[in-house]
Design goal:
This protein is mostly helical and about 290 residues long. It is built from ten helices and no strands. Helix content is about 75%, strand content about 0%. It starts with 8 loop residues before the first helix and ends in a 17-residue tail after the last helix.
């Protein structure tokens, strides 16, 4: 996630420079043709086209931002649920169950990091083994959904605590309700990751924006003359930037500079949970070149 107060123009241009370069070349071709060829192109209602396209792109960007914000809300719920689970494990379990308290906390830290890697399509095993022994992690790592396997294992350990008489059924129910909240948040994240915007939302804005950029110099050359390449390219940059914003936000877990800062939030959970059981905790992640990962 970009945390700079002011967006960098260089970063914007770096994302759209290819279509912008093609547009500039096309602008030059249209301008030269206007002064060389004997016939003139008809005037185009660019204001009408641009207004309709702006509304279309705005609607698409709003839909993309809703997906991004929902991803952030779900991870906020994950942070709260993780804190609740650690607090209940610490307060409900007796002193003789200190090993189980520590296991539940470390499993939750491993769980959120495994979920982060799953959402970003990254390897998960090394992140899980940072917090769990191989014997503790193997059953979950053998499953297709490693994060869900870790959560199931935590539920089994809570049930074993009830069987041992360390907690009663009311306390078990309370801890299970937190696991349900965690599972629901994971399901929402997986839905966002695995369900793209409908094809119409992806294809038509791109198509119409490119068509509009092609028509721009034709409609402007009579007014701008030799300044057409500059004016048309700047106008095209605005529409291409708005189009790119929707592409950047539509997947909040894409492991780009625009996505939800999963690594930073996982580090927040790690710090809070380790401190809850008295273990040393790492420092919070800080932005790197204006980007918080």
């Amino acid at each position: 996630m970009i945390v700079d107060a002011t967006p960098r123009l260089s970063r914007l241009v770096a994302e759209v420079w290819k279509p912008l370069a093609v547009l500039f070349v096309w602008d030059v071709v249209v301008t030269v043709a206007y002064y060389v060829l004997p016939f003139k192109a008809p005037s185009l209602p660019l204001t009408l086209f641009g207004t309709a396209l702006a509304l279309f792109l705005g609607f698409r960007d709003n839909s993309a931002y809703q997906r991004w914000w929902e991803g952030r809300v779900l991870w906020g719920a994950m942070i709260n649920a993780s804190r609740n689970l650690a607090r209940e494990a610490r307060n409900f379990l007796p002193a003789e169950a200190n090993d189980l308290k520590r296991t539940i906390v470390l499993r939750q830290v491993a769980y959120v990091n495994a979920l982060r890697c799953q959402l970003r399509r990254q390897p998960r095993d090394a992140e899980v083994l940072r917090f769990l022994s191989e014997g503790e992690a193997t059953p979950a790592l053998a499953r297709t959904n490693v994060a869900n396997g870790l959560l199931d294992g935590t539920g089994k350990r809570i049930d074993n605590a009830r069987r041992e008489g360390w907690i009663d059924t009311i306390q078990q129910t309370r801890m299970e309700s937190v696991l349900v909240d965690i599972a629901n948040a994971q399901g929402g994240m997986e839905r966002l990751k695995n369900t793209p915007l409908p094809n119409q939302y992806r294809f038509f804005p791109t198509f119409f924006t490119h068509v509009f950029c092609v028509l721009l110099p034709i409609g402007l050359v009579e007014t701008l003359g030799f300044a057409t390449p500059l004016g048309s390219t700047i106008a095209g940059l605005m529409f291409l930037a708005v189009l790119q914003i929707g592409d950047d936000l539509v997947d909040p877990f894409a492991n780009t500079v625009h996505d939800v800062p999963l690594a930073a939030m996982c580090r927040t959970i790690e710090i809070d949970l380790l401190e809850a059981i008295g273990d040393p905790a790492p420092e919070p992640l800080t932005p790197v070149k204006g980007v918080l990962w």
